[in-house]
Structures are given as C-alpha cells and as structure tokens.
Write a structure and sequence with these properties.
The protein is mainly α. It is elongated and about 55 Å long. The chain has one domain.
Length: about 100
C-alpha cells in the first residue's frame, strides 16, 4: 500500500471515529460547551471538591438528566468537575474537530 493510500485510510478512520463520538454526545455540542465555560468560571473562584457537584448543579438548572449524562462523562474521564474540564472538554473538542 502506498503512502497516500495509507494517509487517506487513516483520515477516513479518524473521521469515522469522530462521527461516532459526536453521535454519542449526551447533549448538543453547544450545551456541552456552555457547561465547560460555566465550570471554568466556577472553578476559577472555588476549588474542585473531587465530585461532580458543580456539574450536577448546572445539569439541574438546565433541566438535563444526570442519569443520561454522568455515565458518559465518566466514560470520558470526567469523575469530578475539574476532570470534566481537563478530560471531557478535550474529548469533545476532538470529536468536533473539522465540523
């Protein structure tokens, strides 16, 4: 297989992976981005208590179902508020790359 074919196949695989990641998002991308901005503001004023306390407050205020969102957050490395920013935001950014 030549170099160009390998490159094209890698690109196709990454595109499929990103599409699958986008399809698995538990909330619209704009809502997740809103969560990240809100968490960033809150964690700039108070420390992470190693729980999803702030994330749950945001979900409740927005009428989002934690039972549908928290397992996805955890699957993406978000076991507390600061990990939602450090890990989940990065995974969402990658899923939305080139969109």
């Amino acid at each position: 297989m030549d170099k160009e074919t390998k490159k094209r196949l890698r690109k196709e695989v990454r595109a499929k992976e990103r599409a699958a990641a986008r399809a698995a998002l538990p909330l619209p991308a704009a809502e997740l981005r809103h969560l990240f901005v809100w968490l960033n503001e809150k964690l700039g004023v108070e420390d992470c208590d190693r729980t999803l306390r702030l994330t749950l407050i945001w979900m409740e205020a927005g009428g989002h179902d934690p039972a549908a969102v928290v397992p996805w957050l955890e699957d993406n490395g978000g076991f507390c508020d600061c990990e939602v920013l450090a890990n989940v935001e990065q995974n969402v950014d990658e899923a939305l790359h080139d969109v």
